[in-house]
Design a protein that fits this description.
The structure is a single chain. This protein is 29% helix and 37% strand. The protein has 257 residues and is α+β, with helices and mostly antiparallel strands. Strands 3-7-6-5-4-8-9-11 form an 8-stranded antiparallel barrel, surrounded by 5 helices. A two-stranded antiparallel sheet has the order 1-2. The model is unreliable at 121-133 (pLDDT under 50).
Length: 257
């Protein structure tokens, strides 16, 4: 199912790799026979991850359970109140990633999430206007998550630059390269932009291969020959780890001040 070119739901395997700067150009050259830029091309992505005050969702995710879930608000540029935004649930069960999302204006989406207002209640509020929701099932899944975690609030902003490709023969095969990953836990409003604390070294990239079937043998061979290996990487998770490290550092400074 799609909405304005964006899929509203899908299930796939997502495999992540750390690509150092000195291998990136060679990798793109080798892959160019099999992939081409997709319709999203070169974009900057902005996210607010919602979590409990004690970061229960990301702490559970980092423990690598068989099932985990995240809730986020996403835009593809610095938004204003009327910019198209996505409310997304991302679930992972036994290695398969399931994503569900709906599209609506940023101001509406943020108001809804910040106040834990079910989508069905918003339809009758004159201050919101006509509902833009297109899938009741996805809407209900988001409402169920808000009901389960009753104290959800903005937890962290994560932004990054993404270069996206699709398979020439199989458009459902996707590869993305993310760089300039940044996070912050203050001013959790995407209208403030994507400034924050860096997570990667200069020109390092996180590559994600997104597949619904087996890895193409040609791609696997290229990665093996270039010695580019799988990694476990969560942008929100690494931001949270860095947040804890910063807090411990500040406590140490205060202790001996």
């Amino acid at each position: 199912m799609t909405n304005g070119g964006f899929k509203e739901s899908f299930a796939r395997v997502e495999i992540k790799y750390s690509v150092p700067a000195n291998k990136y150009k060679a990798l793109l050259e080798r892959l160019s026979e099999y992939i081409e830029p997709d319709e999203y091309g070169d974009t900057r992505i902005y996210n607010i991850y919602y979590d409990t005050p004690d970061y229960r969702l990301i702490r559970k995710s980092l423990s690598k359970p068989i099932y985990k879930e995240k809730l986020r608000l996403r835009t593809y540029k610095v938004p204003n109140e009327n910019t198209s935004a996505f409310v997304e649930i991302k679930k992972k069960y036994d290695g398969i990633v399931y994503k569900r999302r709906i599209s609506l204006p940023y101001g509406v989406a943020k108001w809804h999430l910040d106040h834990s207002i079910p989508f069905t209640e918003m339809n009758n509020r004159s201050i919101i206007g006509k509902s833009a929701y297109t899938d009741v099932q996805i809407e209900n899944e988001i409402n169920s998550m808000l009901d389960l975690y009753k104290d959800l609030r903005p937890g962290m902003m994560v932004s990054y630059d993404r270069l996206a490709f699709r398979g020439i023969e199989n458009p459902d095969f996707r590869i993305t390269f993310d760089k300039n990953i940044r996070w912050r836990n203050t001013e959790l409003d995407l209208t403030k932009g994507g400034y924050g604390n860096p997570l990667l070294r200069n020109d390092e990239r996180i590559m994600e291969i997104k597949i619904s079937e087996a890895m193409p043998i040609e791609i696997a061979r290229i990665l093996s020959e270039l010695q580019i290996y799988k990694t476990s990487y969560s942008k929100y998770g690494n931001g949270y780890i860095q947040l804890l490290e910063n807090e411990r550092h500040m406590k140490g400074i205060k202790k001996y001040a």
